[in-house]
Amino acid sequence: MTTANATAAGGDTPVFYLKEEHAHPEGSSTMLGFWIYLMSDCLIFAVLFAIYGVLGASYAAGPAPKDLFDLQLVAVNTAMLLFSSLTFGFAMLAMLKNDIRGTLVWLGVTGLFGLAFLGIELYEFAHLIHVGATPQRSAFLSSFFTLVGTHGLHVAFGILWLLTLMTQVRRHGLIEANKRRLMCLSMFWHFLDVIWIGVFTFVYLLGVLR
Amino acid sequence: MSAQNSSAPAAHSDAGHDHHGATGHLHISMRDYLIGFVLSVILTAIPFWLVMGDVLESKQLTAFVIMAFAMVQIVVHIVYFLHMTSSAEEGWSFMALIFTLIIIVIALAGSLWVMHHLNTNTMPFHDMQKMQQLP
After folding, report:
1. What is the ipTM of this complex?
2. 81-100 in A: which are within 8 Å (CB) of B?
């Protein structure tokens, strides 16, 4: 695309210049950049999963997953996150039709599902701490709280981001910049659901199975 | 997915920069989201049912099956929700994904393998008796 031409302009020293520097429209590389951020975030979770894999069986004579986890609660939590992924999809479809009202409604529903997820997770954490299964109790609980807590923190910031974008869309409409931001958040939100698949499988289901 | 992808590949490299902003590349449909959602529900419900109902006798088999379901569901999410194709962003996001997967496999397999050996081979408690008899 970009060709460097060397011309001997008036003397021996060649002058290099770019023959045609095509214009990059604003935000044309945002999606790739955000994808690379997501991949690096994925590495953070991979490391936390590895830590949980190594320490997950070190109970220090404390409670084991079987004593602590309520799979019905986890199933409800999983459903909340899955529903929120679907409703975010509806928000994106409304966005493509330039339907501001539909976008806002579906984003709101997504936020409510996200809040429900966070609420249930906080309730579970509070219950665990109440029965004495604190992060300080054993290496298993330290790694559990770190892994699941980091995911929950991501969801919390996702909701904050979602509320910010709802305000942006309400104020400025579905302008190109807002569409780009919504697409980034959509990737972030679906990515969190992907991480949750790993969490409910490796932490909860395999933990109870052990 | 769309007619745009089936057009001549030679034209694509030029057209890539003519799209307005980021939304130009987006090919999402209600169908994709619904297929992804239904598949995810099935792929989530079966593992929970297997563990909560104690369906299979062998724990190892159950563990293997639910891990397989998780892998399939991750692929379903990446394809139907994240709309990842090998041609998105001219292949760069797919490259980043493959690179990340390789790093994850190395980090996970390496950690588990090394730490498992450390745990089983250097734990002092097995040979406490023998160690006391040492001169």
Report:
1. 0.84
2. 82, 85-86, 89-90, 92-93, 96
